[in-house]
Design brief:
There is one protein chain. The longest helix is centred in the C-terminal third of the chain and has 14 residues. By secondary structure, the chain is of the alpha+beta class. The strands form two sheets. It has a three-stranded mixed beta sheet with strand order 1-5-4, with helices on both faces. It starts with a strand and ends with a helix. The protein contains three helices and six strands, in the order βββαβββαα. It has one domain: Nucleoside Triphosphate Pyrophosphohydrolase (Alpha-Beta Complex).
Amino acid sequence: MVVYTEQGETLLLRRTGNAFWQSITGGMQWPCEEPETAARREVLEETGIAAAEGWCDHQISRRFHILPEYRYCYGPGVTENVEHFFSLRIPRRCPVQVNPAEHDLSRWEQLPAAADSVWSWTNRVALAQIAQELV
């Protein structure tokens, strides 16, 4: 989930305990939550942002290898994950209330610099796509 402003700023969150920056992430609640419902829920849970408009399902899914240190979050034997790309465009920065169980800081940053700040290749690709769409 990439949350961004019309001025080309995006919201980044710092993961508690790992000190890396990322856009909003999360998982679907099995067995029947749809990806878009999960994306909207995760934005609200992780930031407190509730928005009725500005959502986009980019119709892109990316598969990635789960690093061994994060496999405890998944079922036994799961080594790959599928990530669905959604975004939320808002008019301007807004206050963010992070969930301290998941993140300890938030910041708004210009899209090109934000892509250099995140550790996930899928996150970098998503931020680059949003930046290109704003041109």
